[in-house]
Amino acid sequence: MSQSMRDFKNHDIVDDISKPGVRYEKRPAKRPDGTVAEGLYNVWITLDNPGQYNSYTTDMVKGVILAFRAASNARDVNCVVFTGAGDKAFCTGGNTKEYAEYYAGHPQEYRQYMRLFNDMVSAILACDKPVICRVNGMRIGGGQEIGMACDFSVSSDLARYGQAGPKHGSAPIGGATDFLPVVIGAERAMAACVLCEPFSAHKAYQMGMLTEIVPALKVDGKFVANPLVETQRMVDEFGRNAYGEAKTGDALKEGKAVMARGQVDLSMLDAKVEELCAKILLTFPDCTTKTLEELRKPKLDAWNRNKENSRAWLALNMVTEARAGFTAFNEGPKDDREVDFVLLRQKLAAGQAWVGSLHDEIQPQAKKHG
To answer: Contact, 354 vs 169, CB < 8 A?
Structure first.
């Protein structure tokens, strides 16, 4: 029997990989000149929960695992593009509504969920095909972690990056504490993970987290660089003194005005992703897979060393700080979704136990307007 007529075995775990909130799409692979490579494809795996900034639910985590396994096994697939729906977010991490309303206070349930999360990260790191993270918007928290598990990241320059752990009742041990020191160094990883201050795509590129960044704002029919990046440059240059605040205030006002005039257009992002896919197409497939396996080792070694201990700690944390943090984010007023950190520290220092009223006392309160 000729190879072209061979009946292949199916090595997927299940026949139906579809899950709510995750799209799996095979798009024709193209050569660098734009012509279609007949019979070859790139798989696009899309987190499709834009109303909640593509945060992943339990079912979506299952869908991502199955999708990456299927893409890895597909004989006609060149590479995988992992992205989010819309133009606001790639992914902002776990679905805080589900966390607050189902998992908070139930460590055994969250422990089972974290098995799925760990398998999702491992599925990305184990994919036999190159994985490109197409960053169409915010890549925050767990979204940052699954994004860093990918091999390449191509980003809109409007995207924002960062961790959320200690600000919202968790620790970024779903990959950030493993991957960030490898990618950007220990000191910058410390600042990113502890302070949880978001940063621009331009800064992420400068730190070595991204393969490419492209403009995504169109003003008067032309692409322009993110106008708010100038504000950050002013902060870095002038600091927080009175002169600096005036300068940054002017830059911020001007940047917001440009943003208001423009429209988000991700066509350049898509073109850059396609360009990278085409470059990968012109390589030996098995040599590429072996190269991926070797280059993934620093991330994979750290991940495998820590993921089970991290899973156990995150489950137990759902009784205390995670329960409080996710409740605050889910139920707090729109302009205040963090607990009273000072009050929490004061009460813990005074010996108050988590069991009882502490959780309720530190929740944010809606501001009263006279």
So the answer is: no
pLDDT of residue 370: 52
3-state secondary structure 120-164: HHHHHHCCCCCEEEEECCEEECHHHHHHHCCCEEEEECCCEEECC
Find the distance separating the first CA and the last CA of the chain, reported in whole Å. Answer: 83
Q: What pLDDT was estimated at residue 357?
A: 87
> In degrees, to the nearest 5, what angle opens at C-alpha 213 toward C-alphas 211 and 218?
160
CA atoms within 13 A on the CB side of 56: 34
How many whole angstroms separate alpha carbon 35 and alpha carbon 58?
39
Question: Which residue positions in the chain have pLDDT lower than 50?
Answer: 1, 242-243
Domain ranges in the chain are 7-216+266-317, 224-263, 338-370
Cβ neighbour number for residue 365 with a 10 Å cutoff = 9
* CATH top-level class of 7-216+266-317: alpha beta
> What is the C-alpha separation between 19 and 130, in angstroms, rounded?
23
Please check whether residue 64 is in contact with residue 26, taking contact to mean a CB–CB distance below 8 angstroms. Answer: no
pTM of the model: 0.92
